[in-house]
Amino acid sequence: MARGDLVMFEEFVNYLGNKLYNFETAGDTFRLGLITNAVPPTHATATPMWGDWSAQEVSGTGYVAKGKALTGQTYNEVDGVATFDANDVTWSQASGGTSGFTGAYWAVLYDDTVASPADPAICFVDLGGPVNNNDGDVTVAWNASGIFNVTV
Questions:
Q1: What DSSP designation does 116 have?
Q2: Are 136 and 19 in contact (CB under 8 A)?
Q3: Based on the number of CB atoms within 10 Å of its own CB, is 137 exposed (0-12), middle (13-18) or buried (19 or more)?
Q4: Buried b vs exposed e over 25-48: b needs ≥16 C-beta within 10 Å?
Q5: Helix (H), strand (E) at residue 131
Q6: Nearest 5 degrees, angle CA 112-CA 40-CA 70?
Q7: Whole-number Å distance between alpha carbons of 127 and 129
Q8: Which residues contact 99 (CB under 8 A, 6 or more apart)?
Q9: pTM metric for this prediction
Q10: Residue 121 and residue 31: Cα distance in Å, rounded?
Q11: How much is the CA Rg of the chain, to the nearest whole Å?
Q12: Which of the four pLDDT bands, split at 50, 70 and 90, describes residue 102?
């Protein structure tokens, strides 16, 4: 896997079929959390949930527990292609450049609204870590075609 690769969890298709998510603009709250490499996520993780990785979440200036909530989320369908998208996510450089978070290897996208299973994960991004915000901003820039597409 290369830096910047986004990988969908296999279980996401099951979660989607069971109507766990509401991707609409005023729907569920989706968050992007940063984790270390203690337990790397894999596409085959059974029932992936934020709780699988929350114990290895990074911490430091500029990072809030549970990660950042997505903003500007949209879900639209055009000609048989449904697209989920949101604004890029940025953690600003820590002031002073020494007290920020360190050791981020993965960014996990999950639904912070769903209670059962709690906070189901959708996908993860390889940050090519270790990444920190002491040296500058850390940004996850979504693909111009959206975070993901479902094509019929």
A1: T
A2: no
A3: exposed
A4: eeebebbbbbbbeeeebeeebeeb
A5: strand 121-131
A6: 30
A7: 5
A8: 60, 61, 134
A9: 0.94
A10: 9
A11: 15
A12: very high
In eight-state DSSP terms, residue 66 is T
130: left (phi over 0), alpha (psi -120 to 50) or beta: beta
Q: Which residue has the higher pLDDT, 31 or 17?
A: 31
- Predicted confidence (pLDDT) per residue in 64-93, tens digit: 999 999 999 999 999 999 999 999 999 999
Q: In what order do the strands lie in the sheet with 74-78?
A: 74-78, 81-85, 148-151
In DSSP terms, 74 is beta-bridged to 85
Report the alpha-carbon distance of residue 94 to residue 1 in Å, rounded.
28
